[in-house]
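agent> Task received from the user: take the single chain below, predict its 3D structure, and emit structure tokens. No templates, no multimer pairing.
agent> Plan: (1) validate residues, (2) run structure prediction, (3) serialize to tokens, (4) report one or two observations.
agent> Step 1 OK, no nonstandard residues flagged.
tool_call: predict_structure(input=
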Amino acid sequence: MFWRLIRRAVTGRRGGRVLLAITTALGATIATAMLAVMFDVGDKVNQELSTYGANIVVRPRNAAVLSQLYDLGAEATGPGLAEDQVANIKTIFWAFNIVEFAPFLETDVTVNGVSSDVPVTLVGTWYAHHLSLPTGEHSEAGVIGLRQWWQLSGGWISDQDDTLALLGSTLANRLGVALGDTITVTPANGQPQLSLQIAGIMSTGGAEDEQLFTTLATAQQAANRPGEVDRVEVSALTTPDNDLARRAARNPRALSVTDWETWYCTAYASAIAYQITEVIDDAVAKPVRQITESQGMILEKTQLIMVLVTALALLAAALGIANLVSASVLERSAELGLLKAVGASNGAVVALVLAELLVVGVSGGVLGFAVGMGAAQFVGQMVFDSYVTFRPVVAGLTALLVVMVVLLGSLPAIRQLLRLEPAEVLHGR
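)
tool_result: status=success, residues=429
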């Protein structure tokens, strides 16, 4: 009898039920889209921000200590890192979170200008360096992926061609050098002169505009430091810092065993930096705080906006449902009053109305979930140029929110039902 009444109530008043289903579907659509994007936005934002440079810098231990104590340039003190250990970065626990990395070696040289020799910083690095990892896997690393915002006139140079170089735009104007020209480079330490052809002129908006870039092997030869690098810049996908990450960054050894395992197995910048120091001898890896904190703030604010949009959409849906259900109760007051008159309790009548609402609401919620996932994919493509990953938790949260919204929207109607007097409605009062 109960389910027959529900079926008749749902199918017998199609206009009101369709509006109720549409209202629920609209709320579920926005909630699904926002939740799907919110759970995926962390990786998307990190991937976008990773194109703007490194968030972890690795330096030799002695150089890092001297730099902190005496404010010295880290690249100018003591022995460097071993180049043959740089690839070990891709063997750590969070290897798949390492987006790009590149080693750098700097040395002072002079370059023949139009009127006189000009002192210049020569920078050697990888461009698209092929790596054969100890795990048997293969990868590439270098500044082509790490510095994607550089504007380059000409072309990148190859890691295998030691006769080519890239020149910063400001330095090129000062030297009076154009694409294709050949320059003579004289190392400051008495090493043999180098003859380099300018394959590209770069504009970066930073210190690189005043520098000369070449292959790492060429810079090692000019500096007389074979097999060494000054630093390694790493771009990694990280989890925003919390209290645990900040405590670990100050002193990992002070953590409890449980906190240690949680921190080590979470992609915090400090955890990734720590694991890098485990695979490179005499190295200190430090997160670039300005970048990691900015990533965290951008992510938190983006997620907050999505939560607010979801809450407002669900509130609007609840208000719409409240109006529709209240109108339906007024329309059906005689029928509901008759049920009370023949012996139905308040609880039974309320259960009947709630069951009808949940049937209609779930139908609208299923439709809204399907449309919302499609909307999430559209947002992912438009904003991040990639699809949003489906996460089962989104379906569970959407179902819970739909039920909550339907119940919240039914509260005014339940209040009406409890006050409904059979004698009054049956006599048309």
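agent> Step 4: summary for the user.
Residues 2-47+296-426 form one domain.
agent> Done.
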